[in-house]
Every structure is written in structure tokens, then in C-alpha cells.
């Protein structure tokens, strides 16, 4: 997961290279470091460096890392011949390498030969059972074939061993949300919040899932997590501000019929959130301000 | 208007509406996307629904309620001033060979059809398919050829 500054830095570099300003190698290095999925750009600029023998030789030993990066990008863009060429070049240089073997298995996966890819991954895993990338590729194969339940099973097994892999927890949570298994998704987000308590996105996602689950307790907890998101993100997160208004409206709708055991802990929270939203909209989208005000009125009226 | 096996129900889709949705799907090639269709029943012909515009909604976390609620309220506010209502739902699955209309889409489409009984669901797959929500009717999709060009 990339921070906003890293993302803006990457975008700036991308714009620079797009407009012919050079800096392709820096862009590729940053993309590799941040592990973002910009395969079409990586493919284009990586190939421009690799096909130019002068630029290629100036890279020195980084040339092979670039071959690997371009091979993966080519497979993502379905340019399988390019991927095959890169893998051949790597094979000539590193004949017995497991890393190259992994790339070959990925090429089988990209071609759609699921059984061959599965067999290749299994044999690679026998030799090295702790290769995280191969475990995750197996989950990807299951997901690509549409066996979501198998993918979930594999991913759970993976997470039992590699509990610190945040991206995997997020992937699992997203799969659960897409299947409407919200309780399990909430569990994944809880794990993420425990291990990375200062990342506001996890709080936000957890609050969203709790709201979707519904029920008075979940709504109250969701409101707390929206508030913590706002706290952690310095008040800039519009989704959390909206979330607070939604929660307050839903809670008061639910609590209308029964006696409220405890007074509403922060009665001016929704009005503060609405004020913040209106300020933000005035700054960024002043023509949509009227839509916002009527939406907020709608939420307040239903409360 | 009963519509249960009576006259044919037709849908007419504006090019702008269709293009916006396809572009949204193309921009987010690696995730499922959804959107709403906006329009009205034609004043001249009650069995013709004109889809005039569309709003692409999300490209991740399609199953979460808060963003969906807020966006639907805002869309209704904005478009009711222009005389359009929500007439349908658009969805494109994550995998290109997945032609199932998932549970999430079914729930959202059900909800929409409660307010607008002739609601349509547009599922973009490899070839354009237009699903009818619950009523027996024939559908007219004028942009099938456009779709095969885009895919």
C-alpha cells in the first residue's frame, strides 16, 4: 500500500516520462519499490531501455532485474511473446535459477494452462516451501478460474503461516466483501488494525463493513471507527465524514422506537461532520454544494 | 402499468450513457465496476424506457453500504432536478468470462426495481447482455454492434 506522497511522486515521474522528459529508469525503480501495478507503462518504458543496447549496458547488473520486471509487466498486459523473450534472456544468464523457474510458471499461468502452472508451482514449493510469491500465485490461479472458495482456503492457509502480510489480509477482506461475508471481512480488518493501528484506511474499511452489517451496536462501533479515521487522517477523509452522518442518522432511526439507555455520546458530531464536508465541497466542488446540502438535509430529516 | 406479460418493454440507451460506463470499465480493467442508469419512461410511449445518462459508481468494495447509500441519495437529488430518475443498474465483473450476475448486483437491482418496476440491469461481459429484472419482456439493445467493436 502506498502513501499519498509516494503516489504523487510516482505520478509526477510518470508524467515526466510520458511527455518525453526522460527519467524512465527512476520511474521503473520507483514502481518496482512501491510494487504498484502500472504494467502498460512499465512495459513500454522498460522495453525502450532493453531494446537500446547502449542504455542496456549502462545498467550493469540491474539489467536482469529490469528483465524480470518487464517480463511480469508483459504477462499482465498479455504480451506473452515479450515475456517469453525476457525469460529466455534470463534463462541464458541464470540457467538453474529458481527465480527464473518461477517466472516460467507465471508464464504458464498467463497463458491459461492452469494445471501446468499449478504443477510447476507445486514442484517449486517442494524445494522451497516458504516462497511467499508462489503461495500467492496459487491463490491467484484459483481466483482466476473462479474457484473463490478454493482461493479463500488457500489464502487462509497462507495467512496462518505469514500472518504479517498486510496485502494478503486486505485481499482476503475484499474477497469476503465481494461474497457478502461481512463478519469474516470484519475479522480481517480487525487483524489489520491490530498490526497497523495508525493507518486510517483500515479503520475506514472496518467502519464501512460494520455499517453494512447493521444493528445498533455495529453502527455505534462504526461511528467510533469513522471518528478515528478522521482523527488519523487529519480531518481530510470525506468518506469518513459522510460515514459519521450516515451512522448518526441510522442510529437515531433505530433508537427512535426504544428508550435510549445512554444518551448519545456526542450529539454535535454529525453537525460538525456536515460543516466540515460543506467546507471541503466549497473548496473543491462548489457547483455540487447544493447537492451536498440537500443530501445532508435528507440524512438529518430521516434521523 | 401492469407489465406482467402484456406489452413489450423496450429500452433505448443514449450513446453518452453507454460510453461512460464502458470507459469506466476499461479504466479499471482489474476490478469489478458498477454504475447506475438514469432516465425516464418515454412520455409518448409508456412501454419505452429511455436511458439518457449514467453515473459510474465504484471500482472496488462494491459490496459496502455507506458509499452506495450516499451516492444514490446524491444522484437522485441531482438528477430529479433534471427530470431523470434511476432506471437501472450497470455491472461488469472482475473476470471477463464471468457471466453471472452476483448477489450484490441482484440486491442493488432489486432495491432499484422497488422504486422503478421496469428497472433494467446491464451486465457487460464479452458480448453485451441486457438482463431484464423479473418481468417478462423483450429487450431492445441498440448498441450491440458498438459493444462488439469495443471488445
TrEMBL record, chain A:
The keyword Repeat applies. GO terms for cellular component: EMC complex. It is a peripheral membrane protein. Residues 100-209 form the EMC2 TPR-like domain. Keywords: Endoplasmic reticulum, Membrane, Repeat, TPR repeat. It is found in: Endoplasmic reticulum membrane. Pfam families: TPR_EMC2 (PF22890). Gene3D superfamilies: Tetratricopeptide repeat domain. Its main location: endoplasmic reticulum. InterPro entries: EMC2-like, TPR-like_helical_dom_sf, TPR_EMC2. Belongs to the EMC2 family. Part of the endoplasmic reticulum membrane protein complex (EMC) that enables the energy-independent insertion into endoplasmic reticulum membranes of newly synthesized membrane proteins. Component of the ER membrane protein complex (EMC). This is ER membrane protein complex subunit 2.
UniProtKB/TrEMBL annotation, chain B:
CDD domains: MPN_UPF0172. Residues 11-145 form the MPN domain. PROSITE patterns: MPN. Pfam families: UPF0172 (PF03665). One of its GO terms (cellular component) is EMC complex. InterPro entries: EMC8/9, MPN. Belongs to the EMC8/EMC9 family. This is MPN domain-containing protein. It comes from Linum tenue.
